# Entry
Amino acid sequence: MASTNGDGSRTTGGRGKLYDSILDTIGDTPCVRVNRLAPDHVDLYVKAEAFNPAGSVKDRLAVSIIEEAEKSGALKPGQTVIEATSGNTGIGLAMVCAAKGYPLVVTMADSFSIERRRLMRFLGAKVVLTPRAEKGFGMYQKAEELAKANGWFVAHQFETDANAKIHENTTAREVLADFDGGRLDYFVSGYGTGGTVSGVGRVLMKERPETRIILTEPANAQLLGSGIEQERTSVGAPAVSHPAFEPHPIQGWTPDFIPLVLQEAIDGDYYHDLIPVPGPEGIAWSMRLAQEEGIFTGVSGGSTFAVAMKVAEKAAPGSVLLAMLPDTGERYLSSPLFESIDEYMTEEEIALSESTPGFHMPKE
# Structure
């Protein structure tokens, strides 16, 4: 942990421990105060999940799925793991499988950012792309086909008990510890699988009942807001694509079905409010977090923060809020998040270059 010494300079003292595996570094991510953007009458924090070793909250889910399957015997030594994912779960699984020696195959719609598939391949996974027109349901069904044909272990992130369990045992416990003895009036999160809100909700509803849990989803893909129930198979998997789904730019959020893991939070009334957010607002707030706070997060983090800011503006003086930031922004370079970022130089940068006589770049 960073601190300052007698002359005010920054210093660190080390963690005081050695790690047996990269997997032992998952979790214990920091809650960081938002200083310049937060309204003056509240304290607003973000939980920066980019501090996980593979850069996202899904590292928690990935290690939980594999280790719970090892304990139960569902996953055999050397068996291939397969999963349908928009990216972060696949990256987390690729890290875990590399560390533990399991082959990994990922199915992913070709609409998701190129960086994600390249990261998974860099970590040793095979990535099978599916047509974007078939949405999340298509990549889900492809994973099931391949698993059945080859005898592979399906991670089942959208249905497995290991999902909410890891958030109950780690994420929620970290929040309790970090806000121990102080206020926590609001906890804000989006959903992909629903593991975060279900797992954290289990704990906060019992141990911090005064904390209001705010859930958010894309404004143009309001699956929960529609009130339409998800059609499921006998094992809880989606039977069809949800009729309220539309493509949206918040990668990692809201597939075209309501996951079974999320259904627990719905049935148990774990969240107090559901606030939709337009994708462009999430992109705008992601950029502001980066440029005005130095906090680098993706579209999902920006979208969660957008809702947290709306809640903060109306919150009572002295309120304390915590928003989940699921990942880093670096895996969105080919996505709409970076569309406004010039590759060469802006006009202002060119003017700066030409304001002194030497070392000019040739004009494009």
Observations:
- The longest helix spans residues 161-178.
